[in-house]
């Protein structure tokens, strides 16, 4: 029954997304600009990695795409609260967990799709990476998007207006991006910054993805990346479900 | 046997300025097949009560049974057997009427063919057939309202809750909606629990009225009984009775005529 409900809710949002080219493509604009106008600056810099600068930058851009995209997923929840759609669905017997998971899975899939486009663009710019590594990268993007979308939707349930929502999300997403070393690896950072960045879950994901992009799969970074991504996803979905279960939102 | 019964149903909201008792204790019963008008001034606790009875809001006190299910112990059962049409409706403007109806049916656990057939059937009854493939945004106010109600009827609920169903409708659409509500009761035995600010609507449509003020029931009875008791005559208007009950009549007229 839960799977039936998740499929149903997912289907509703997926059809909505498929109808909107704008929604499907707009998210890749920012990372694409970084790829085009920032990527070429790195080609000859020593980034402390075995691979090319593209193998360092592209994993970061993919996670940036997931980070900024998914962190704003909650906007849709606020709109549905205002149009009454959410409440109308909440009086049906549909599982509360499915109301969250259905939409969060749509988000994860959307950002993985955008990641594929971005990787294709990066290959045109000069990225070369093993297929397995690239696929592992998509899995990380999917997990991170799902986690952040769940937290974002949960937060959206507790605020009343987009005016409260936007600035808070922005002020979390921006430092998260910088502190996780998405643009440049934290290996270049001074000690204090490196220590600070270790409190950011995304830091572990990007390190693991950079290993995957140079074909190194059995590293400690990979192990930490997988553990952190899974724990973060579990935590986020638990928090999200708890908020969605609670009535009166 | 009542289809809805509540005892001391209450809801207190915790705010920064201290607790606010939106609903202090509602006791009411609704018989199967009854059209119940739930009236009260703004802020009397009507919508809060409705949100509790439809499982959207957990009560902080009291108990209620809706369609044979205990509100606190079996909210899932209540959801299966009741329909709710909120004041704001609740359809996505970018989605087609048919898709919203079918998805709604499937949220109520109908199979895909069942939901599709039910959507056609309801569209026929509610004059929405021509509009099935339009986007919800393209509907007029009256059409939107009929769609909102169709959404609440997909699963043939025993009880239908309507929150101010005719607010913002033109006179023709209101009359249509009254007919629809009467037909629901007459042909399907649906119990209808509706809130409204239009006293002519309550008078024309409801078998019985429950009037709430400041979070409790202050009067109940048939429209004529209320007029007789509170306004002195069955020929009085419901408006007079309502103002007498809620104690918010117009300020007493100044005896001296205004100088022209």
TrEMBL record, chain A:
<feature type="domain" description="ABC transmembrane type-2">
    <location>
        <begin position="22"/>
        <end position="247"/>
    </location>
</feature>
<dbReference type="InterPro" id="IPR051784">
    <property type="entry name" value="Nod_factor_ABC_transporter"/>
</dbReference>
<keyword id="KW-1003">Cell membrane</keyword>
<keyword id="KW-0812">Transmembrane</keyword>
<feature type="transmembrane region" description="Helical">
    <location>
        <begin position="222"/>
        <end position="244"/>
    </location>
</feature>
<keyword id="KW-0046">Antibiotic resistance</keyword>
<feature type="transmembrane region" description="Helical">
    <location>
        <begin position="54"/>
        <end position="79"/>
    </location>
</feature>
<comment type="similarity">
    <text>Belongs to the ABC-2 integral membrane protein family.</text>
</comment>
<dbReference type="Pfam" id="PF01061">
    <property type="entry name" value="ABC2_membrane"/>
</dbReference>
<dbReference type="InterPro" id="IPR047817">
    <property type="entry name" value="ABC2_TM_bact-type"/>
</dbReference>
<feature type="transmembrane region" description="Helical">
    <location>
        <begin position="100"/>
        <end position="125"/>
    </location>
</feature>
<dbReference type="GO" id="GO:0046677">
    <property type="term" value="P:response to antibiotic"/>
</dbReference>
<keyword id="KW-0472">Membrane</keyword>
<feature type="transmembrane region" description="Helical">
    <location>
        <begin position="168"/>
        <end position="193"/>
    </location>
</feature>
<dbReference type="InterPro" id="IPR013525">
    <property type="entry name" value="ABC2_TM"/>
</dbReference>
<keyword id="KW-1133">Transmembrane helix</keyword>
<protein>
    <recommendedName>
        <fullName>Transport permease protein</fullName>
    </recommendedName>
</protein>
<dbReference type="GO" id="GO:0043190">
    <property type="term" value="C:ATP-binding cassette (ABC) transporter complex"/>
</dbReference>
<feature type="transmembrane region" description="Helical">
    <location>
        <begin position="22"/>
        <end position="42"/>
    </location>
</feature>
<dbReference type="GO" id="GO:0140359">
    <property type="term" value="F:ABC-type transporter activity"/>
</dbReference>
<keyword id="KW-0813">Transport</keyword>
<feature type="transmembrane region" description="Helical">
    <location>
        <begin position="131"/>
        <end position="156"/>
    </location>
</feature>
UniProtKB/TrEMBL annotation, chain B:
<dbReference type="GO" id="GO:0046677">
    <property type="term" value="P:response to antibiotic"/>
</dbReference>
<keyword id="KW-0046">Antibiotic resistance</keyword>
<protein>
    <submittedName>
        <fullName>ATP-binding cassette domain-containing protein</fullName>
    </submittedName>
</protein>
<keyword id="KW-0067">ATP-binding</keyword>
<dbReference type="GO" id="GO:0005524">
    <property type="term" value="F:ATP binding"/>
</dbReference>
<dbReference type="GO" id="GO:0016887">
    <property type="term" value="F:ATP hydrolysis activity"/>
</dbReference>
<dbReference type="Pfam" id="PF00005">
    <property type="entry name" value="ABC_tran"/>
</dbReference>
<keyword id="KW-0813">Transport</keyword>
<keyword id="KW-0547">Nucleotide-binding</keyword>
<dbReference type="GO" id="GO:0005886">
    <property type="term" value="C:plasma membrane"/>
</dbReference>
<dbReference type="InterPro" id="IPR003593">
    <property type="entry name" value="AAA+_ATPase"/>
</dbReference>
<dbReference type="InterPro" id="IPR027417">
    <property type="entry name" value="P-loop_NTPase"/>
</dbReference>
<dbReference type="InterPro" id="IPR050763">
    <property type="entry name" value="ABC_transporter_ATP-binding"/>
</dbReference>
<feature type="domain" description="ABC transporter">
    <location>
        <begin position="4"/>
        <end position="239"/>
    </location>
</feature>
<dbReference type="InterPro" id="IPR003439">
    <property type="entry name" value="ABC_transporter-like_ATP-bd"/>
</dbReference>
<dbReference type="InterPro" id="IPR017871">
    <property type="entry name" value="ABC_transporter-like_CS"/>
</dbReference>
């Amino acid at each position: 029954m839960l799977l039936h409900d998740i499929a149903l809710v997912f289907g509703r949002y997926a059809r909505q997304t498929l109808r909107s080219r704008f929604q499907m493509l707009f998210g890749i604009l920012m990372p694409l600009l970084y790829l085009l106008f920032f990527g070429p600056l790195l080609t000859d810099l020593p980034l402390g990695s075995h691979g090319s600068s593209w193998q360092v930058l592209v994993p970061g851009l993919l996670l940036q795409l997931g980070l900024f995209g998914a962190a704003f997923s909650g906007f849709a929840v606020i709109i549905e609260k205002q149009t009454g759609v959410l409440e109308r669905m909440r009086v049906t017997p549909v599982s509360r967990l499915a109301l969250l998971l259905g939409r969060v899975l749509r988000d994860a899939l959307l950002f993985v799709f955008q990641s594929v486009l971005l990787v294709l663009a990066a290959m045109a710019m000069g990225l070369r990476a093993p297929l397995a590594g690239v696929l592992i990268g998509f899995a990380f993007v999917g997990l991170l998007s799902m986690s952040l979308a769940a937290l974002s939707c949960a937060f959206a349930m507790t605020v009343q207006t987009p005016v409260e929502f936007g600035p808070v999300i922005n002020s979390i997403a921006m430092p998260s991006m910088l502190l996780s070393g998405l643009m440049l690896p934290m290996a270049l950072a001074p000690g204090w910054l490196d220590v600070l960045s270790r409190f950011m879950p995304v830091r572990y994901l990007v390190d693991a993805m950079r290993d995957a992009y140079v074909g190194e799969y059995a590293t400690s970074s990979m192990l930490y990346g997988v553990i952190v991504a899974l724990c973060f996803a579990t935590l986020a979905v638990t928090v999200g479900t708890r908020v969605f279960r609670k009535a009166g939102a | 046997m009542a289809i809805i019964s509540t005892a001391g149903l209450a809801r207190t909201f915790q705010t920064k300025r201290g607790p606010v008792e939106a609903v202090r204790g509602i006791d009411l019963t609704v018989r199967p097949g009854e059209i119940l008008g739930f009236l009260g001034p703004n802020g009397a606790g009507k919508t809060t009560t409705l949100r509790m009875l439809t499982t959207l809001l957990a009560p902080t006190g009291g108990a209620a049974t809706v369609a044979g299910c205990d509100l606190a112990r079996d909210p899932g059962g209540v959801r299966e057997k009741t329909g709710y049409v909120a004041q704001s409706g609740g359809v996505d403007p970018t989605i087609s009427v048919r898709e919203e109806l079918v998805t709604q049916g499937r949220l109520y656990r109908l199979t895909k063919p069942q939901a599709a057939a039910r959507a056609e059937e309801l569209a026929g009854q509610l004059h929405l057939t021509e509009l099935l493939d339009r986007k919800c945004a393209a509907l007029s106010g009256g059409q939107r309202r009929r769609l909102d109600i169709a959404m609440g009827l997909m699963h043939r609920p025993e009880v239908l809750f309507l929150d101010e169903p005719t607010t913002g409708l033109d006179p023709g659409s209101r009359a249509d909606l009254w007919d629809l509500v009467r037909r629901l009761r007459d042909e399907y035995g649906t119990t209808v629990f509706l809130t409204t600010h239009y006293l002519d609507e309550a008078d024309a449509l409801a078998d019985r009225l429950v009037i709430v003020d400041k979070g409790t029931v202050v009067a109940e009875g048939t429209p004529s009984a209320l007029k007789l008791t509170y306004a002195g005559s069955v020929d009085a208007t419901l408006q007079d009775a309502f103002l007498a009950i809620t104690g918010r009549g117009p300020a007493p007229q100044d005896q001296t005529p205004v100088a022209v």
